[in-house]
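cron nightly-structures :: item 1 of 1
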Amino acid sequence: MSVVGTDTDILIAGGGMVGAALAVALQGTGLRVTVVEAVSPRAPAQPSFDDRSTALAYSSRRIFEALDVWSSISTNAFPIEHVHVSQQRRLGVTRLHAAEEDLPALGYVVPNRVIGHALANAMEHAPHVEFLSPSRVTGVQCNVDRVDVVLETEGAGHQLAAGLVVVADGAQSPLREMLGIGARNWDYGQTAIICNLEASRPHGNVAYERFTPEGPMALLPLAGKRLALVLVERSAIAGDVMLMDDAAFLARVQRRFGDRLGQLTRAGKRVAYPLALVSAERQIAERAVILGNAAHSLHPIAGQGFNLSLRDVAVLAEVIASHREDPGAANVLDAYAQWRRQDQRKVVAFTDLLNRLFGIPFGLAAHARGLGLLGMDLFPGLRREFSRQAMGRAGKLPRLARGLPL
């Protein structure tokens, strides 16, 4: 079953949430998997264990159920039963409801550290999976029958051969560059400020997406009356916003959001992240696949980034499971790229267009956006199609996204 003449069948560069999910997904295939991660899982700088939260689509829950990790996540997963989309000082609103889809939730808000710990624990107990950290790839040579990889692990260099290399080491991927694959990088001139808030009124498991002249914002339901805030500011003023005291910051958020949840009373620690659209020029190369943020790093406006990457993981695992004798063969990678092309293009284009469209301040454009939101709210067919896209339930779904084993 293993690729002849290799030290490992699949080398995954990047042991964050995407790379770890792929390693766990492959555990039943019998293939040897080596995961290389530069930052130790216990280090404060590990993004899979930080204080941010991720909005998981319903299809992502099904994938985690199929990977047998949802039980470790669900106790800290806060359901999104309704979504409320609006724009400031303009008419028009769209509301989505889980009941219309006959589902318990449209999605779930989960702290990254919870997802990271669940996947790390599953990876630790997965057969045939070796985890090297701190370790990084310092050289790579793709050949017809294998990939020769140079690693630096705890200061010592060594080399191994793999049948397939999966590049999942982040938006500014060093390995993607080593493979000679460029990336289109569009700086939005925006910064996301993320923190937790508390409101005086219950949120009712509603996720709010609000478009304002200053930038979009989202409030996602957490336990009790707490919410996860994603506030997008122009990068030119984001530094000043970060320096505001809590009272001034809460007043700014309140002015942009309104009083649907009453008074916003407390703010947690704030963290800022510059926003850019990063898209790899190619997602496959000779015996290599680009995955996660290394393939497409999206604007957080619709919460699609990780969910899109998790569907990529599910498809890649399914295609590999069907071609275990040589997971890095050209026909295997071509099958993966063809299956994922439409969903990836649709989500990347939609997310980018949404941010640009709602960023146009002119009156006629604002009225047109309001009519679009109102139309979607009035016509169930449009609303349902939008909801299915947002939940990752449209198009050809892989087995894991249907809750089925490989």
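cron nightly-structures :: done
The first helix runs from residue 17 to 25.
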